[in-house]
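=== Structural record ===
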Amino acid sequence: MPNKRSVFNHCFFKDNRIKIILYPIVCLFSITYFWLSRQYLDALGFTLIHLHGLHPLTILIVSIFLAYQNDIGKWTFVFAFFCGICLMGTDYLTFRLSNMLTFSVINRPELMLIPIGAAVSFFGELLGFIAKQVIKRT
């Protein structure tokens, strides 16, 4: 039987599984918390704490550790794009869905959140790469 390599058997995924699934877990937590705790009644507070605090901080920290422990390559760019999609999905499954249910309208996803999430991830990856280079030189 030929040895077929899956994308998920790549060493980047094997070595970084916990770091990679950490941000989607935070996204699922935010979505669940939004709906179960009736945060749709206090959207401003949820926005400030989750989408402008918890999510960028999580993306930044996870990206720093990924870049510190790995070389910069195509998987780091894929991860940054993945973070942007998760950020957009969290926004869509909380605020936009709440708005659609309340006002009986259909809203499109805020596609601008993809490059914003990716930019935060790229910045974290850059910080991790710089920290790795500084520590390597000392």
